[in-house]
Task: inverse folding
């Protein structure tokens, strides 16, 4: 009987998705190249500036800053590198703790680890799939104390240096609440906006509220540079430092090679930036397509009981990077059946990440009660979301 | 009088270079794209696989392995990342020391630092511009002792875990001597072959003697992928581990996101690999051009006293990545004048790197006597070296 219900729901989900995306194999998210990609790549090759320097890097950075409203954007090799450098410049030091959501891609935690700091896992809320602000405030009030203007974890004795909300699937977290927590507890706010290019919280672009925000242009993102990322900040000094650190900390000189600190080879190559410039020109169109795709999914799923589409939080405009189904709790046992049925016939779907605290490298990291994150990992499914589906 | 001599030598150098490269601005090293670059980039865009996966990554890795004779090649985002992962997999741990040449690009030292280890600087020899094997052996005999099969620095108490020769400007270091030191002192050999794609030591490709070798495909290298690098190894298990670590350590699964260790987002994007596949097809031609360029420089400089062209060490075939002038010691005072005169008129030249131990972040790192490295930094000049100059 259970099996039958499960099978029925799986079939209904398949049919609903098929009504929107049509027949054949459909990826979860694939890029489309309908603009000047080819022209800019050709221009880049013809200039021979495919690597460290070139006009597309500067242009891409200017356009990212312009679109997001951040004063400065520094393009880098990927979103993980962007977050690592942002955390470093936000003052994260060896032995510190950094608050991150338990429900995020592992790169968020790894960037913390690269700073020799420890991720400290925070629970999520149903409304945003991002950090639960009320729960976090209560938790910090209980486990932390203020010492010389620093937030100390009373249990571990370590400094809680930064809080890194991630805007899940493009849906803005409760940034107002998090800004307020950061202020009240003397913790630096750094936004992992890897998934939320084109997402706004009360009209302001995600990634521009914290001291830094970071973006990703991986192949599965709303726009892509092949591999790439960016650091956003409103501070001129921090922007300069970020550029310096991500370009091996070389002191500018026509022929001398002098470096004044341990830097990183994290610049975005010009050829990847060329692709990005062409993609950026299509961003508004892609965002509109994603909203239209949501509308079509809503229509297709309207009569299916037990499953609903996740909608942007109130006051927010999401990029709907990944379209998201949420199963009613009582249907959570159907998750695997739906994943198996859809993937088997070439409709690519996936669950939300396993909570990172459940993964081997982070099993012993500090964490609060993560009951919501654990629940969401059993009821959330991403379905095909490419803007090209519209 | 001194000024006059200096000015004369500078002018002679300028005239000799001009005889080879002709008039106008000439870069130190710029790439040329004379093959299938267009076609492969277009194919890559048309496939939509520009990012994490795609056929060009696999093809590039197979062709790099084939060309170098390494059993396995793993393509990554740049040479620094390649070396960081190679060192990590070679067992370099926090608190270890790693022997590197004092004369190398700072990335060699930074890769050691990323492992939370300390670079320990080694002097160079005139014959190769690489590590001085005799001096290193004598030094290690004096400062190290063997404890439980590990090489311990008696002064710092730390383990000397690895030795990382760099094949300067493409000229193979004394690999036989270094292999023997590595064996005798229980130190792992990892080759930084960033500059030496196409360079052979007694018929065997550089980067294939150590447990790992690492390559770079930066825009200034013999062939380029925009930004990129590769890890070479003959061990299947290590190759698999390197691939795993550089692709976020994700356990393969159609929809689950599980990662079993702290990995890195270091894969080479498919679009960069597409460029690399086209470039690799021209590698032999480029190498031949570089040898012809050397021949032309030799003819142009034959009658100029006080300066000579650096030639490949005996038994080696160098890629002549950067053509190199060596001033007679008594002319070292002319270095700056030559650099200024050439760069001012658009003939890009540069000195060898400042010895890394002289740079702020590494001033306090352990080192042996570095008198040769210090001397070379005053007498070595790289001159325009692009294969396109022939």
Result:
């Amino acid at each position: 009987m259970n099996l039958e219900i499960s099978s029925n729901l799986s079939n209904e989900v398949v049919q609903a998705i098929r009504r929107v995306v049509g027949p054949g194999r459909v990826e979860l998210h694939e890029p489309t190249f309908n603009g000047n990609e080819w022209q800019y790549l050709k221009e880049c090759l013809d200039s021979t500036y495919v690597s460290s320097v070139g006009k597309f890097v500067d242009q891409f950075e200017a356009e990212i800053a312009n679109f997001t409203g951040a004063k400065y954007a520094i393009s880098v090799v990927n979103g993980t590198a962007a977050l690592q450098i942002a955390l470093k410049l936000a003052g994260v030091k060896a032995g510190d703790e950094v608050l991150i959501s338990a429900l995020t891609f592992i790169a968020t935690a790894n960037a913390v680890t690269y700073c020799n700091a420890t991720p400290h896992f925070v629970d999520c809320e149903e409304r945003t799939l991002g950090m639960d602000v009320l729960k976090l405030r209560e938790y910090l009030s209980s486990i932390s104390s203020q010492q010389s203007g620093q937030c100390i974890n009373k249990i571990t004795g370590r400094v809680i240096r930064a809080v890194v909300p991630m805007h899940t699937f493009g849906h803005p977290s409760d940034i107002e609440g998090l800004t307020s927590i950061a202020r009240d507890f003397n913790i630096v706010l750094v936004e992992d906006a890897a998934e939320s290019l084109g997402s706004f919280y009360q009209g302001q672009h995600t990634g521009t509220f914290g001291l830094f925000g970071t973006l990703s242009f991986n192949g599965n993102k709303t726009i892509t540079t092949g591999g790439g990322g960016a650091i956003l900040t409103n501070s001129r000094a921090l922007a300069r430092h970020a550029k310096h650190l991500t370009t091996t900390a070389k002191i500018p000189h026509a022929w001398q090679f002098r470096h004044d600190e341990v830097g990183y080879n994290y610049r975005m190559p010009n050829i990847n930036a060329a692709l990005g410039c062409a993609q950026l020109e299509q961003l508004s169109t892609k965002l509109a397509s994603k909203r239209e795709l949501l509308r079509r999914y809503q229509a297709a799923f309207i009569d299916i009981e037990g499953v609903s589409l996740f909608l942007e939080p109130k006051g927010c405009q999401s990029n709907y990077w990944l379209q998201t189904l949420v199963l009613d709790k009582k249907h959570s046992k159907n998750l695997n059946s739906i994943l198996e049925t859809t993937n088997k016939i070439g409709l690519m779907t996936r669950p939300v990440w396993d909570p990172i605290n459940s993964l081997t490298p982070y099993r012993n990291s500090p964490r609060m009660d993560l009951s919501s994150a654990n629940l969401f990992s059993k009821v959330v499914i991403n379905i095909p979301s490419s803007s090209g589906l519209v």
User: Anything to note?
Assistant: Chain A has a mean pLDDT of 96.
